[in-house]
Amino acid sequence: MFAALRRRLIERVARWARRRQGLDPLPLVLRAPRLYILPTRAGLGFALLLFVMLVAGLNYTNSLALFLTFMIAGTVLVGMHECQRTLQGLELVQAHAGDCHAGATGVLELRFYNAARQARRALTIRSGTAAVSEFALAPGATLTVRVAFDAARRGRLRLGRLELASTAPFGLFRCWAWLHLPLEVIVYPQPAGSRPLPNPTVGRAAPRAAASSPGEDEWLNLRAYQAGDSPRSIAWKAWARGAPLMVGQYAGSGGNDYLLSFAGLETLDLEARLSQLTAWINDCARLDAACELRLPGVELPLGRGAAQRTRLLRELALYGGEAP
């Protein structure tokens, strides 16, 4: 019951802060009105200790004990001011989040700049229930911090509230700020399925560099060996000289391409079909093979490479709306 009440209170406070602050355009400089500060558990225990010291000093009229109590209390108040100053004036210069697969952990990159003359220590930032990222900033330094976020299902994901906090210098107070960044990522379907690639179609490959003569292949370059590459394409001479396993890439006047569709996947539900198609697209990218996508209402032309892979995966992520 207490956990449910605490969660409901946090949600109400979060909605209030969202209405109060709105979206945060970049670059963003943290100012005092949007900073919140409360004592930590250690701070509450320390306050209780100071109260006991005060009562004991008054009870025994011990001037030395009272002097020590007030001196420590003054130091704590200075620490509270320094805790807030750790965040005040901190600048968020840039934010970027890349696409990811469902069920995986995405990465958000935040670039901070410290224009102050003092270092900013014991900084933490997190997104939702993901792991906390800890960092510190030297005076005049710029730092890129990577924050993990959960991508539970495919579709368009708007990143929620980020919490930037610090407990410097003594850990007795915690100052924090909520960041509402206008960031969206595309979450691809989870690659899954054990079915092999459909049979390739010969002679309809995506355009490559022209071959030197008809029926011959033109050597392009070497790339790192990947599991599944044909042993005949491995550069064995380079490997014998001590180089890592490399695979030769060739371009010819013709080649194989793959038509990816729901054909043969009728026994699977929609999400399983999209997961299998995602696995096939990744296989085509790994093999440097050309592929095209044909689904009901969707037709993407033949292509190859990283850009083609991104186009196809984004289309699968948004196909038929978000996952239920």
Distance between termini?
29 Å
Mean of pLDDT: 85
| Rg, Cα atoms, Å | 29 Å
As for the number of domains, it is 2
**Tally of individual helices:** 6
How much helical structure, as a percent, in the residues? 25-40%
Estimate what percentage of residues fall within beta strands: 25-35%
Strand count, sense and barrel status of the largest sheet are: 5 strands, antiparallel
Q: Would you list the SSEs in sequence order as H and E?
A: HEEHHEEEEEEEEEEEEHEEHEEH
Structural class: alpha+beta
E-strand count: 18
**Silhouette:** elongated
Sequence stretches where pLDDT stays below 50 over 5 or more residues: 203-218
Helix/strand layout:
Blueprint: H1 2-21, E1 28-29, E2 36-39, H2 41-59, H3 63-87, E3 91-97, E4 100-101, E5 105-113, E6 120-127, E7 133-137, E8 142-150, E9 155-158, E10 162-166, E11 173-179, E12 184-188, E13 201-202, E14 217-224, H4 236-240, E15 246-252, E16 256-261, H5 270-287, E17 290-295, E18 298-303, H6 306-317
Helix pairs in contact: 2-3, 5-6
Short synopsis of the structure:
This protein has 324 residues and is an alpha+beta fold.
